[in-house]
Design goal:
- It is built from 10 helices and no strands.
- With 229 residues, the protein is mainly α.
- Helix 4 (68-113) packs parallel to helix 7 and helix 8 packs antiparallel against helix 9 (195-210).
Length: 229
């Protein structure tokens, strides 16, 4: 099972666990549909809702904690459009914080270690193609989120290339997970007659996302011949 498929399976397992918790735990009276929808409406309508969400998500992702609950929460609370926007902003703020910490605390030390000509050349080459390097690595499912943040921070990759590459690379997955969560909520509440169609489309997009490793296995070898990064 590849990383994307594993993440999808973990997502489904998590949703089932939440459903069981809502049904059988002592918290059941507070986790019923009406209570959760009331909380969502409150968070949607207060001015500080998006600010609190972005701050919590950004801090969580910056220290390397799992961000999937926030991504799903963003879709459920704010809908597909604004949920995607808030999720993307939050993830990029978190990534930037980790990058900048690594840049200011670790770059000089790493530079002192790059006395080997080949390592220095590799670092320079990565910086030369910074945007493409980050974009490609963000799309690969097995590259750790915070591992890449810190690795890029101690490299010569410019912050602009890192930020833009991260935004472009994380946006497809962010949209799909957000859309999936919003579709589940719409199907539960019956917001419109097409709710289950949206849920089906979201599920298909999740399946497609899980297949990206196979696509990259075919694409990367040919691409490396033109550009090693």
């Amino acid at each position: 099972m590849n990383a994307r498929a594993g993440k999808f399976a973990a997502l489904i397992a998590g949703l089932l666990a939440i459903a069981l918790l809502a049904r059988f735990s002592p918290l059941a009276p507070y986790l019923n549909k009406d209570s959760l929808l009331a909380f969502i409406r409150i968070l949607r309508n207060v001015w500080w809702g998006p600010i609190a969400f972005i701050a919590a998500y950004a801090c969580t992702s910056a220290v390397g904690l799992p961000a999937i609950p926030f991504v799903l929460g963003g879709g459920a609370v704010f809908g597909t459009l604004w949920g995607t926007i808030y999720n993307a902003i939050s993830a990029n703020i978190g990534a930037s914080l980790a990058f900048l910490v690594a840049r200011f605390m670790g770059r000089d030390f790493v530079a002192s270690l790059l006395k080997d000509g080949k390592l220095a050349a590799l670092d320079a080459k990565a910086a030369q193609h910074g945007f493409q390097t980050i974009l490609t690595l963000r799309l690969l499912p097995f590259v750790p989120f915070n591992g890449l943040n810190f690795a890029a921070g101690i490299s010569k990759i410019r912050y602009r290339d890192f930020a833009l590459g991260s935004l472009a690379g994380m946006l497809p997955g962010t949209f799909i997970y957000t859309y999936f969560a919003d579709s589940i909520l719409s199907g539960t509440t019956g917001v419109n007659g097409k709710a289950f169609v949206h849920l089906f489309l979201a599920a298909m997009l999740m399946v497609f996302l899980s297949m990206t490793p196979k696509i990259f296995k075919k694409w990367l070898p040919a691409n490396r011949k033109k550009n090693p990064f």
